[in-house]
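PROTEIN–LIGAND DATA SHEET

This sheet pairs a single protein chain with one bound small molecule, zinc ion, given as SMILES. Inputs appear in the order they were entered. The predicted three-dimensional arrangement of chain and ligand is reported afterwards as a token string under its own label.
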Amino acid sequence: MKAWRRPFLGAVAAVAIAATGACTPVRNPATGDTQYTSMSPAQEAAIGKDEHPKVLAEFGGAYADPALQAYVERVGRSLGQVSELKDQTFTFTVLDSDVVNAFALPGGYVYVSRGLLALADNEAELAGVLGHEIGHVTARHTAQRYDRAMLGQLGSLGAAILGGVLLGDAGAQMGQQVGSLGATAYVQGFSRSQELEADQLGIRYMARAGYDPEAMVSFLDAMDGYGALNRQLSGRSEETPTWLASHPRARDRVRDAAQTAEAQAGQGRVESAAYMSAVDGMIFGDSPEQGHVRGNVFVHPKLDFRFEAPAGFKLVNTPAAVLGKGPRGQIMRFDAASAKSADPAAYLTQEWAAKLQPQNLRRFEANGRPAATATAPVAINGKKTQALLAAVAMGEGRMYRFVFASPQLGADSAAFEGVVRSLRRLTAAERADAVPLRIRIHTVQPGDTIDGLARRMQVDEAAREWFVLLNGLQDGRLVPGQKVKLVVRG
Ligand SMILES: [Zn+2]
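PREDICTION REPORTED AS:
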């Protein structure tokens, strides 16, 4: 959760307006197809420029590692230069997010998350991902997608909350949620045939830039492995948007890409050592800037607080809010907001939810901080119901806020109030435990084994599975002198 973001909603409206121009047939230099899009390259560039800061705000911001950023740019530029759009300016950004993701916007904006970078094994695999996204740009998929309506594609947990808890005008924050889901929808909107086309173009650019196209296949294998491990581990949301979800049917794509790459597979550069040194020291998993979920507990080391959701709740940390889903259809949302009033009861009734006329106002203390709850009418999936709203004063003009809804609010309200009461500062031990995990590169020594190295991994669970996955060791072979990724604290 990175609070105090600007709402994203404006972006969706702007896109809708931009997409109403006339359709002109254009022959695409990358695909040879005649395409109909309402957008000129200049309009694409303008939209990309406008969207870029909003995408950064929504997807964790740019990862603050200039050397890694420069490395990704260098690889990306080498691919852009051999594409059909030689004059296109490409802008590459590493996102500070552990969600495995990569996507492109009109105007040549290409994004890759550090979660995805952790999975790749060498520069050629990174080139496969960047080449694929560049393919979406050169084939003008990114522009075509803007010509379709994008609102209403909302799925998953977020949509349940949003569709959801339309808090009337009470939620400027809820508007923010609408916006963020809109953005998620537009990074997921490609068709199966567009995905294949992007794979083929990506492989073409890889080969032209001298990379081994086989790396496209090996990275898709890694994505499959990641998907399988993710499903196996508890507490990870299946609904989190990832490169997997937005680029469907990875297994088919592996096969298709392998066939396409056959002519050149096994030839070209892989650049394993350069890649390993580029990702050495990169944060793995949650960053302390954003807070993290551990089971049903949310911890934010930077802002120094934690709270505990009821047992069985699944929490998801998004840049705008922490969202939660309970076992019996309960939903919750947590975020922060600036407040004029220092009194949570006044804030709740006169600022946040003033137009909803909240009832049943209660004041109490949550670990020494003034808190208030009230009930208010909301619409959940079109049905009107009551939600429990809570505000906790954190000082310096800030309120932490919860929204809870449940098919049986009466039965759940004590548990919900317990969540509010659990909000507190971290202990010294919790702060120490919140030191982030990082990728550290280890050179395999004679006598090193997969099990031995896996024991040095400091991930919460499935250390051996993570070690094998992050290093592409499914065939179980370690060679002395080989560089491998470990994940350790500090
Ligand atoms: Zn794609």
